[in-house]
Specification:
alpha/beta; Chitinase A, domain 3; two-stranded parallel ribbon; single chain; Helix Hairpins; elongated
């Protein structure tokens, strides 16, 4: 299935984390920021009040994040546990090795809203993620990087 431009793939855990963040922003942070604005206004002239400006910037960030999360959840396609398959799909954990090296790398293919490369979670839209989608164990994939093309061998899929 090819996502439409506004669709985002999320795991069940990813959707729960975003919902939890949204609830926190709406029910806790929004009220904290409103209190910061109120306190800053109480300090006097808001035209030269750094505290007021900071509180308004904080409000803009919180409201922007709320809108972003709501948009993601509205268009989310929730993916469950990846089914057993001999081809790489979103939700699969893939073990690869750069051709000519002995070092194995393990990545989980996720939607763009759950990307965390430091923890091995790469987007299905990233150069490596998109190169791996649909591949099988034993396949060699070529990935265009700023430093040139790098080849990887698919070792395991789970």
């Amino acid at each position: 299935m090819v996502p439409k431009d506004n669709e985002v793939y999320l795991t069940e855990d990813g959707a729960k984390k975003l919902q939890k963040e949204l609830d926190y922003l709406i029910h806790v942070r929004r009220h904290e920021v409103a209190q910061h604005i109120h306190d800053a206004k109480a300090d006097g002239d808001i035209s030269e009040n750094a505290g007021y400006d900071e509180a308004k910037n904080e409000q803009a960030f919180v409201e922007g994040r709320i809108a972003k999360i709501q948009q993601i959840l509205k268009h989310a396609i929730i993916i469950g546990q990846a089914s057993d398959s001999d081809t790489v799909q979103i939700g699969h954990e893939v073990t690869i090795r750069e051709t000519g090296t002995d070092e194995e790398e393990i990545y989980t293919i996720v939607g763009s809203a759950e990307v965390d490369p430091g923890n091995g979670r790469i987007s299905n839209k990233s150069p490596l993620g998109s190169a791996l989608i649909g591949r099988k164990v034993g396949d060699r994939v070529a990935v265009n990087t700023p430093g040139g093309v790098i080849h990887f061998d698919v070792l395991r899929i789970k």
